[in-house]
Every structure is written in C-alpha cells, then in structure tokens.
Amino acid sequence: MPRSLKPRKGVFLSHSSKDRKFVLTLARTLKRHGIPYWYSATHIAIARQWHDEIGKALRRCDWFLVVLTQEAVKSDWVKRELLFALSDTRYNQKIVPLLLKNCKYSDLSWTLPSFQIVDLRKDIEAGLRKLFGLWGIALKPAPKNLERKKRKKKG
Question: Could you say which architecture CATH assigns to the domain 11-154?
Fold first, then answer.
C-alpha cells in the first residue's frame, strides 16, 4: 500500500446501516483531521435517489473504506459499492478494509483476504492510528469536551 497518499477528493465509507454508530465516529474523526469523506447518512439529502447519490460519490472519492461486520457481509449495497471500487483503477491500492467485528469477509469478495486489513476488533484507536498512518497523518485524540458530554449522557 502506498504511503502518504492523503485523500484529496474524499474517502467513501462503505458499511451496513447497522454499523452506523461506529461509522459516525469514524466520520467525525476524519472531519477532525481535515479529511474529506462521503457518508450516506450525512450526504444524501431527503428525496434524493440513493442509488444516484452513491454512484456520484463513488466516482468522486479517491479512497474506499469498507467496514467489515457480519451485517456488511450480508449487505447487497456494501457488495455493490465494493465491486465498483474493485473495478475502478482510481481505487487501486486505495481500498482499505476495516475489520470491526469477526466475520467471514471473503464471502463479500474473494479478493479481500489479499488486502491490508486494519483490525479494529480489540483496539479501535490503535486501528485508526494504523489507518491514518497509511496517509502519513498522526491520529489526534478526541477532544476532551466530547468525552465529558458522552459521560454526562450515560450518567
């Protein structure tokens, strides 16, 4: 995988809607680091055609992250998005599988086991450091005020 190829046009976030909580955290982390991204929950306007908007984003972005879970492996949309990225030369060496939960990801594509997979299962922060390291970016810790807000909601 080439190093220090910071995303310029954007990172496409492919995921199952059931993994929304993690993907929202990932999107916020990308934003905090000034990395443009495309995330369906925040970038598809109401009354827009999902299919068309996803296609536009896939043609615009220059990196592709796929969040791997059992739900993602079963998702037709994740499979379609991944197949598009695999067939587009713009994404050569710019597809990064993020293993969030144990799953048989080779069922999504027989090619995935040959990719450099970022393992998030035991330590999400360490995995994100590895991901950002691919782009030559040091991962900044989350702002303390966000941690306090999270604690207040729980308590």
Answer: 3-Layer(aba) Sandwich (3.40)
